[in-house]
Structures are given as C-alpha cells and as structure tokens.
Amino acid sequence: MKKFPGDRVNNPTSNEQQRLAALKALQVLDTPSEQAFDDLTALAAHWLSTPIALISLVDGHRQWFKSRVGLDVTETPREMAFCAHAINQAALMEVPDARQDPRFANNPLVTGFPEIRFYAGMPIASPDGQLIGTLCVIDRQPRTLSDKERDTLQRLARLAEFQLQLRLNILQSNAKTRELEHQQALNQRLLDSLKAGVVACSDDGTLTLFNTTAQHWHGADVLTLPPADWAHYYDLYAADGCTPLARDDIPLVSAWQGKPVENVEICIAAAGQPLRYVLCSGGQLYPERDGPGAAIVVMHDISEIRRASNMKSHFLATVSHELRTPLTALSGAVGLLGSGKTDPRSAAGERLLDIARENSQRLNELVNDLLDMEKLEAGKVELQLEPLALRAQVIQAMESNHPYADRFQVHWRIADNLPDLNVIADQRRLQQVLANYLSNAAKFSHPGDPVQIAWQQQGDSATVRVVDQGIGIELEQQPQLFNKFTQLDNSNKRQRGGTGLGLAICKELVELMNGQVGVESETDKGSCFWFTLPLAVPENQPTQGSVPPP
C-alpha cells in the first residue's frame, strides 16, 4: 500500500538498507539550501523559542543538515547524533536535560560545543514510510515542551515530509519525462531508419510526422507548412503518373477524412528524381470517432516492382514477336517447299532453305538465351576454368561470327601491337561473351564501318574492348544495358531484334569468371563494350579446375 507523509513503518529499524535506499531515492543529501525547508526551521526556532533548529537527515555514517538555524556546521558523525536515536521511534523524542540522560551525558556535543542540554526531535518519514531524519530543536538550557509546542513541532515535521513528497514527485516526473523523450527519440530513429515512408497528422489536419524517407521521396520536409497549405505542397499524381491528384484523393487526406486507404497506388514527383510509384495504406488512429481525425499512412516504394513488371511485359511482348517472326518465315518457307510448287534444288528453293535455316538459328539462339538465363538465376551453370590464349580466342570468335559481319556489312579488326596475354576463363562461355559483344557491335554499326577488338593488361587482369563507330547509346540508358530484359527504346535500335537478355547473360558469365563488364558510349559516335578477366599464372604454373555452381 502506498505510504503518505505522516505514515511510519511499524518497525522503523527492521531494515536499515531499505531506510537508506529511501533516503537515497530522494536525492536530497548534499544539495543546496531551499527556502521551503529554511522556512520550517525558522518557524520551529521562533515558535518553540530555541536558539537552534535543524532538519537533519541520517545516512549510514553521519547526520547532514538540510536546513539549520543557529548552527554553522553542516553535519556531524552519526555516533554523536541525537537524531540517530530519534529515528528509532516513530514518535517525538524529547530529552529535557542531556547531562542527566545516560545516552548523552558523555556526548561531545553535550560536554563541548554546542553544549546541548535540551533536545526535541520529531522523526521525518520518507514517502514510503521510512524514518530518514528529524525536525529538531535544541537549547543550551534544560527545559520541556508544552503540549502546544509538541503539536507545533509535529505539524512542522509533517510539512517537511510533504516537501520531500513533492520533491520525489518532481524527480519521478522528470525521470518519466526523460524516459518519454528517450523513447520518442528511439521511435524517431526507428521511423527514420525505415525504408518505408511514414506520414501522420493530428485531429485538425496538422502534419505531425514526416519521416526521413518520406522527406527524401517528397524532396523536402513540409512539417513547417501551415495546415491549410501542406496538402497543396505535394506534387502527386495518380498511378498513371500523369493525372494530378486532387486534394481529397491524397492518401493522408483521405485517411484523415475517415475514408479507407488500402493499397492505394500513387506517383510522387520530386525535383531531381524520377517518378516514384508508392503503395499507400493507413487510416484514422481513432476510427471510433465521427468526422475527420488523426491519421497515419505508410508508403512502400514499388517503383522497382513496377519497372520489373513493365520490363517483364515488354520482354514477353518482345519474345512473342521474336518467336513469331522466325516461325512465320520458317513456316512459310517449309510450306512452299512442302507444297511441291518449288523445287528445293532450284534457286528459289535454295533461297527458301536459307530462310528456313536462318530462322531456325534465330529460334535456337532465343531458346538458348532463355535457358542460359534460367540456369544462371538458379545457380546451375558450371564453368571449366583454364588458361586460354586471348588472341586465339578472339580470332575464333571473329571467324564464328563472320555471318553477322556480312549481314550488317561491317568487318572485324584486331588493333595493332597488342600483347599476347593468357587469361583464366571457360572457353565455351568466353566465346559466348565475345559472340554477343561482336554481334551487338555489328547490329548497331553503320554499313562499311569497322568493329575493332583490342585488349591490354591492367594489373592482374586483362581488359578486352569491342569498339564500334555506330549510333551510340544515350548516357541515361547506359546503366540499364546489362539488366535483364533491357532493350533500348529507340525504334531504330528496336527493329534490330534481340531478347534483351544477351548482355545480362554476359554480365553474369563474366562475373562468374571473376571479371567485370562495362560500357562507354556517346550518341552518334559509337560504343565501347568491355570486360575483364584474370590473367593466367606463369607458363610453368598452369591452373585449371572446375568451378561448381555458387
């Protein structure tokens, strides 16, 4: 049961540790003087007509005076303290003549300064009932208190207890405030660390929360704006990225108005950032109330999901087109040959057979790309790494891809004065990477242009470059080139075909062979696609081995 000022424990000396803990909890020892306590000792000295009045607190080894009248010292040893005896009882302790009391007759405070003769001390209890000190009066003459004086001393002691209770309340309130501030700081750090945007408003629509992610997405912190203006600050659009959102359609406004906000997709346009698609969910914090009220909305960035979905749809459309075109040509050629109207041995028949072969090859390449990407994503590609002569591998790739050069009217060229380097790679996969680089260069070159292949040693790696003088690639599109299902949007480039998987497969394969890929390009001036591979160890230390799937 909670203790109140004036309550005392039944056996005040039963647990000294509890008493000392109660005194420590008040944080009052060795604190500066306070007017409230000084007023009590002044009143006690005045009303009881004594030269000395003290508020004394007894710890484990001393008595310390929180307030004093008529005495200069601030503390005395506990073994000399009259108050140390007074706290052993719950009632007023009165000593008419200390010289006649065997407990105090030889006390230095009696035989010497301040020559105590009379002492009266009323124990002071802590808020939980522990006796921690006294309000006492001292005289240098023997005397006794009247009943009225005893009542006065007891009442003043209770006032001291109320002051201690007030002090403890303030301490506890401050501690709770600090704890709340600490928790709020932790909550804010947690909110700011979230990858989701979190916004909230109060009952009157004032923004109260706009975490760091939300600020970044919107390009600013709008908490400083007045309630009437904050909704108009947003540059928000519907999910189509084109239609501006009306004020009432903004998710937080809808939630504030009590409307359901569940997986609402909107688009945020912030200065210097691409359109960001976010999925919003939230509602009122107190939905049981009628009308507008405090609300919160959580936003998740689904831009990458939208991009991947768009890319997948685009990829499926591309694959459908890429499949349909050779299948149509193949079906037509086979149909004409099968009808018997065209002799396979005639010039027309030979042309139809060429068409069938070319489109069968295109279908085979498409299927192989799809299978390779599936294996790469599943981690099922095994490499046989071994030392390979780079020049020989490049020449082999040029010869194998000669039909591409003929088809797009370009010619391969190896740069002059190149060193002979050996690299560690899987031969079949290296040929696949080179073939992709060469075919891309041929596709996007102008007729008659050369495509140059060069390499050089850089540290413990070899860098291979395939350079064309073709149409080039816009700077903002270059980071996407090695992503899956990526094809450039330019219609002149799209018409050259491809699944958008080739460069993504090259990136995966080169990285499996401990290399890197990249591109340097300028519109209308050509492109340089490069990749690196680790150099082989010296000739007398050949290295080869199997690399299992990661």
From TrEMBL:
Q: Looking at the keywords, is Transferase present?
A: yes
Answer whether the UniProt record assigns the keyword Membrane to this protein: no
Give any GO molecular function from the UniProt entry: histidine phosphotransfer kinase activity
Q: Which UniProt keywords apply?
A: Kinase, Phosphoprotein, Transferase, Two-component regulatory system
Please report the stretch or stretches of sequence annotated as the Histidine kinase domain: 318-537
This enzyme's EC code(s): 2.7.13.3
- Note the Pfam families from the entry: GAF (PF01590), HATPase_c (PF02518), HisKA (PF00512)
Xref: SMART domains: GAF, HATPase_c, HisKA
Alphabetical list of InterPro entries matching this protein: GAF, GAF-like_dom_sf, HATPase_C_sf, HATPase_dom, His_kinase_dom, HisK_dim/P_dom, HisK_dim/P_sf, PAS-like_dom_sf
Q: Which reaction does it catalyse?
A: ATP + protein L-histidine = ADP + protein N-phospho-L-histidine
Q: Which domain of life, per UniProt?
A: Bacteria
Gene Ontology CC terms, in alphabetical order: plasma membrane
Protein's UniProt name: histidine kinase
